[in-house]
Amino acid sequence: MFASFACGVGWAGLFLLVKDALPGVPFELMMGVGVALVIFLILSVHPILLGRTPFGVVPAVLLGLIESLLVTMVTPMLVDGAPGLNLLWLLVVFGYGCLMTLILVAVQDRLISAVLGTTWRSAPTEDAPIRAPRVVG
């Protein structure tokens, strides 16, 4: 998921490079048509070409794109001297969140296993029993 988020940040960086290369295009047109085109490209490339890779988690790619655009739009509105985020810091913050989630899930599994007295896994494993679909009729 982190790799997909990083791809979204990369798409936003590419969009910002193209936006800066076209200085005469109105902001509204660039944000409307440009972002729609980038989202179309993401929805075309990631599920089809990268669907079975770590870069194929489309919601994470879109999250990376939208959060990056939000950060770049909010940064000019900050007061002088306020710390501003850039795209690299956005990756660091998201990576920190992924790491903390991993730690919380591992700790939660250990605590639940200790309370229940059995092995507990938050995520299904390969040897977990699969319930057969119920036939109605």
Automatic annotation (TrEMBL):
Source superkingdom: Bacteria
Transmembrane segments: 31-50, 57-79, 85-107
Transmembrane helix found in the keyword field: yes
Keywords: Membrane, Transmembrane, Transmembrane helix
Protein's name according to its UniProt entry: Uncharacterized protein
Organism from which the protein derives: Rhodococcus koreensis
